[in-house]
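User: quick one
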Amino acid sequence: MTEIRQSQEKTYAVQYGDRRLPFRWRLLSVDGGKARIHVYPDGLVEVETPQHTTLADAKKALLKRARWVTLHLTDIESRRAEVLEREYVSGETVFYLGRRYRLKIVQSSGERHVKMLRGQVRVTTPDTSKKSIKRSLYAWYRDRANDVFARRIAMVGEQLSWIKETPSWSIRDMKTQWGSCSPSGAILLNPHLIKTPTRCIDYVILHELCHLKEHNHSQAFYRLMAHAMPDWERVKADLDQLSELYLSE
Ligand SMILES: [Zn+2]
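Assistant: Done. Structure below.
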């Protein structure tokens, strides 16, 4: 299973007024000195404290700067809301295979289709309501996903000795996963993956295909991954970083 924005690291939290502030805690390798607090662009709060300090020290340090952290987070959240709120009008950005395209809406008297044209994704439709555009665009994404994923599965599978024939797969909308592999070996891929770079698609496919041999996240599993895609961790990081943009419908 390829989780969306999976965080391997444990998070903690402090309560500040009526707000819960989750954070990641790291111990620095230096002795003494001040705690450091970072707020990352994606809203992740990280507290670094000197060696030999405790979780309680980290919480105390965060609470001391809680006002500053909260201001930052509020700012990030309002900017994010803007990014995520789609109107489905001409000029908006849409993603396809990791590239940005301009959405262009063309009202027709009956024709209905979606085409890629000179850096645009052009939706031609008699009904230019948000709901209708969203539906047309989504249908187009699914269509492209079926086509592209079939090719990528064949290509990625070709390099894997345990794949003798194309495994059965289908696309399914999933809120928390890019892909999954059932115990019986059925692979599901998130159609929104079509918005991400081909390398990210390959990474998710590879992850699921490796599960056909290793049904867990054991060392043996990660060895298979590393053998087929030595830089998979970097690809995963790219995918994680932009997942919010890709998943905004
Ligand atoms: Zn997995």
